[in-house]
C-alpha cells in the first residue's frame, strides 16, 4: 500500500519519526509484532528557501568577483620606469614604492623627484655597494641604513602650538601625506621623508607665494620649505619660481602610479579578500575622505559577510544531516537491543522447559 503524509503536517524540522503499526487480530493464534516505519520530517518550504539563498549567495559572489577583475583590468596610471632590481635587501626603485591618487599632485611631485625616481633603495649599505659595483657606478642607489631623518612630525609652518598664525588659501599640506605605500610602509616613509622632507603642496602659484610671504613675516627666523602647486609650479625654499626650471613640462610622463579606486577595496571586503590591501597615510584619509586600506583586524561588522554566511549555512546543513544519522543509528541500536533482550528471554523459557524433561 502507498502511504502519504499531508502537506503542512505538524513536526520538528530535521527530526526522525517512527510510525508504529500494531495489528489487532483476535483470531490469530500467534502474537504479531508491530511494524515500525521510520521516516525523516523535513520542512520543504524552509529547505527550498535555504537552497535559493545559497544560490543567490553564489550568484552575488560571482558578480562581485567579476566586477573586481574588471576593475583590475581597467586602465590606470602606472609608473613606466623599469624596476629590474630585486632581492631580499632591495626595496625597488623610488618610482615604484608609492602611489598617488590625484593626477595633478602625482604629476608635480613626480617631476619634483624626477632625479630620484630611478634610484634603487636597498636595506643595507653592503647591498647598495654591490649594485654600484655591478653597474659600474651607472646606477644610483640609496641604502636605508645611510638615511638620517628627523623623526619629529612638525606641523605646517603657519601652525604653532596647535594654532594658526594666519588663515592660508590654497589648501596647503605636506606633499608626502599624499603618498600611498602598497608595502613596506615604515621603510617607504623613511625614504620619502628624506626625499621630500617638508615640501608643501598647494593649489596655485599665487597662493604659494602669498603663503611664503606670510610665513616669513610671521615667523621671521624660520625658513619656508619648497612649495609645489597642482598647476605644475615650484616655489623653491630660496623663494625662486617661474621659468622652465620651475615648471612641469607638458610631455612629462614618468609619474608615480595610481591606486585602484575605492570601490575595488569595498569589493574585497564584501567577498572576503584582503590580500591586495594597500597601506594608506592617515592624513590622506582625513583629508580626502577616501580610505583605501582595509584594517586587518576589524572584521566585526562588514568583512566577509557573504562568504561567512555561505560557510555557516553549509555547516548548518552538514550538522543537521549528521544529527539525523546519529538519531537514526540510535533508534536502530535500541531496536536491536530490544530484540536481543526478547531472544534472551525466549532462550531462558526454552531452557526452563527443557529442564522439566531432563532425566
Automatic annotation (TrEMBL):
Residues spanning the signal sequence: none
Superkingdom assignment: Eukaryota
SUPFAM superfamilies found in the cross-reference section: Smc hinge domain
GO CC terms of this entry: chromosome
Coiled coil stretches, renumbered: 316-353
GO BP of this protein: chromosome organization; double-strand break repair
GO molecular function, one term: ATP binding
Keywords in alphabetical order: Chromosome, Coiled coil
Domain SMC hinge: 88-212
Pfam families in alphabetical order: Ig_SMCHD1_8th, SMC_hinge
Compartments, record wording: Chromosome
Protein name: Structural maintenance of chromosomes flexible hinge domain containing 1
Organism: Fundulus heteroclitus
Amino acid at each position: 500500500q502507498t502511504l502519504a503524509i499531508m502537506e503542512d503536517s505538524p513536526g520538528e524540522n530535521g527530526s526522525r519519526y517512527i510510525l508504529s503499526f500494531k495489528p489487532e487480530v483476535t483470531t490469530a493464534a500467534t502474537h504479531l509484532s508491530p511494524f515500525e516505519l521510520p521516516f525523516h520530517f523535513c520542512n520543504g518550504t524552509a529547505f527550498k528557501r535555504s537552497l535559493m539563498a545559497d544560490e543567490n549567495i553564489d550568484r552575488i559572489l560571482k558578480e562581485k568577483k567579476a566586477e573586481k577583475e574588471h576593475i583590475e583590468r581597467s586602465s590606470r596610471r602606472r609608473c613606466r620606469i623599469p624596476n629590474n632590481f630585486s632581492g631580499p635587501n632591495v626595496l625597488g626603485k623610488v618610482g615604484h614604492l608609492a602611489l598617488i591618487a590625484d593626477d595633478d599632485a602625482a604629476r608635480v611631485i613626480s617631476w619634483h623627484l624626477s632625479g630620484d625616481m630611478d634610484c634603487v633603495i636597498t636595506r643595507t649599505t653592503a647591498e647598495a655597494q654591490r649594485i654600484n659595483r655591478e653597474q659600474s657606478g651607472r646606477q644610483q642607489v640609496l641604502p636605508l641604513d645611510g638615511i638620517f631623518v628627523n623623526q619629529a612630525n612638525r606641523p605646517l609652518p603657519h601652525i604653532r602650538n596647535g594654532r594658526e598664525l594666519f588663515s592660508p588659501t590654497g589648501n596647503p599640506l605636506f606633499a608626502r601625506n599624499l603618498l600611498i605605500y602598497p608595502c613596506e610602509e615604515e621603510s617607504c616613509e623613511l625614504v620619502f621623508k628624506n626625499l621630500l622632507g617638508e615640501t608643501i603642496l598647494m593649489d596655485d602659484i599665487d597662493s604659494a607665494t602669498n603663503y611664503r610671504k606670510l610665513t616669513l613675516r610671521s615667523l621671521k627666523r624660520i625658513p619656508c620649505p619648497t612649495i609645489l602647486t597642482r598647476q605644475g609650479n615650484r616655489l623653491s625654499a630660496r623663494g625662486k619660481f617661474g621659468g622652465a626650471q620651475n615648471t612641469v613640462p607638458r610631455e612629462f610622463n614618468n609619474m608615480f602610479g595610481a591606486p585602484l579606486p575605492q570601490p575595488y577595496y569595498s569589493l574585497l571586503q564584501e567577498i572576503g579578500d584582503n590580500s591586495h590591501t594597500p597601506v594608506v597615510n592617515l592624513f590622506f584619509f582625513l583629508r580626502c575622505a577616501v580610505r583605501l586600506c582595509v584594517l586587518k583586524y576589524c572584521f566585526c561588522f562588514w568583512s566577509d559577510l557573504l562568504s561567512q554566511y555561505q560557510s555557516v549555512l553549509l555547516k548548518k546543513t552538514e550538522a543537521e544531516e549528521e544529527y539525523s544519522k546519529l538519531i537514526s543509528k540510535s533508534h536502530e541500536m535500541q531496536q536491536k537491543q530490544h530484540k536481543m533482550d526478547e531472544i534472551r528471554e525466549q532462550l531462558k523459557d526454552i531452557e526452563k522447559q527443557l529442564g522439566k524433561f531432563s532425566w
